[in-house]
Design a protein that fits this description.
With about 230 residues, the protein is mainly beta. It has a single domain, classed as Lipocalin (Beta Barrel). The chain has a 14-stranded antiparallel beta barrel with strand order 5-6-7-8-9-10-11-12-13-14-15-16-17-18. A two-stranded antiparallel sheet has the order 1-4. A two-stranded antiparallel sheet has the order 2-3. A hairpin with a 5-residue loop joins strand 6 and strand 7. It is globular. The protein starts with a strand and ends with a strand.
Length: about 230
Amino acid sequence: MYLFKAISILGLSIILTSPYQKTIKTLVVSHTRPEILSGQVKQLIEIRSESSSEFKLCPIDTTFFDKDGNPIETRQGTGKYSCVISKYADKYDTSGKKTETTFYDDNLRNVFKYDSVGNIIQLKHYRKFQTMQLLAESTFNYDADNNINEIVSHSFTGLLISKELLTYDDKGFVSEDDCYFRGKQLRFELFHKYISLDRQGNWTKKIDVIKYATGSAPSTDTIERKITYYN
């Protein structure tokens, strides 16, 4: 059995894995939110139809995994317009446990750190100017069921940027994500409705409704997934 955990933060598009005791925890950083995927995933295609997104012109991401559940690369677009947007590198301690995963391209580097049991506890964002410089840092907190229930982000100066509070339904899917500007002022509420599941119990279609604290009209996003398994 393989388990995959996904999380969204700061609008990036990343998929990371960390294997421990025959369990694979996958961090998906995009416009999706924390979830658990079952099965030995070989390929994940995500198709977005979003009413208010920078991804309107490039709505398809494809991530390839090896048989151990580690991501090989993520590509954006299809056919001759497809290009690699994500590469991955890992570090391990002397016992073989993964301690760090880096997602990177030519100008961006994101470093995830794990605790002793394989939970993501920190994310550092770097961007290349003349050299790679730290821009922001995020920390992850967990509830009693070991689901990420809070993400707190600070700038490189230590200024609190945002706080996300996550709520789960009885199936383990995220049902609501509330984002607070500087930890206090509500910016938006993101609600998830899951439309269909595959044979492994993973969702293959969902609708996200974003309600803005400013009173602006809500936006509705539809996300579909095509998941291919090794077996």
